[in-house]
Design brief:
Layout lengths: L1 H14 L3 H7 L4 H8 L7 H11 L3 H5 L8 H7 L7 H15 L3 H15 L33
Helix pairs in contact: 2-3, 7-8
Length: about 150
């Protein structure tokens, strides 16, 4: 617990936030953060993960199991996309996810990054309008069809 307390305080000061600020971020009081930093108490699993996520460090780093701050997933997320098209980027992301056994959340963030870089592909003629079958009076959910109209 000594290492966790020290690292928590160090990370908080590096970020330039108060115990009160951190408490609000992870939904606990200032005194609770003070107790964590003073080794009086320790956070539950959920709060511990929230702290790691907020400071962008691995839980192993907070526990003192490693001196490497970043998780492998975070390092991968920070890599620039080298591909030239969205399709190439998505194919590469798929292979990285499979190779490293990354989570669906990480895969989603990587794909989001690729879409932000390359834009959303649009079918010819539908650059601003939805596809014809998804608009108008027969749009799903409009109630335009009755049960006996389906046959």
């Amino acid at each position: 617990m000594k290492i966790f307390s020290h690292r928590l305080k160090e990370l908080r000061k590096e970020k330039g936030i108060t115990q009160e600020d951190l408490g609000k971020i992870v939904s606990v009081g200032k005194s609770t953060i003070s107790q964590y930093e003073s080794r009086i108490s320790r956070p539950d699993h959920e709060i511990f993960n929230m702290i790691a996520d907020y400071f962008n460090v691995s839980t192993d780093y907070l526990y003192g199991r490693t001196d490497i701050r970043e998780t492998p997933e975070r390092k991968i997320l920070d890599l620039p996309l080298q591909e030239n098209t969205l399709v190439d980027a998505l194919l590469r992301i798929t292979s990285i996810v499979a190779e490293y056994g990354l989570s669906k959340t990480t895969m989603f963030h990587m794909m989001k990054k690729a879409v932000e870089k390359f834009g959303v592909p649009m079918a010819d003629g539908y650059e601003t309008e939805p596809a014809a079958h998804l608009s108008g009076p027969n749009m799903p959910g409009t109630g335009a069809f009755k049960e006996d109209d389906e046959n």
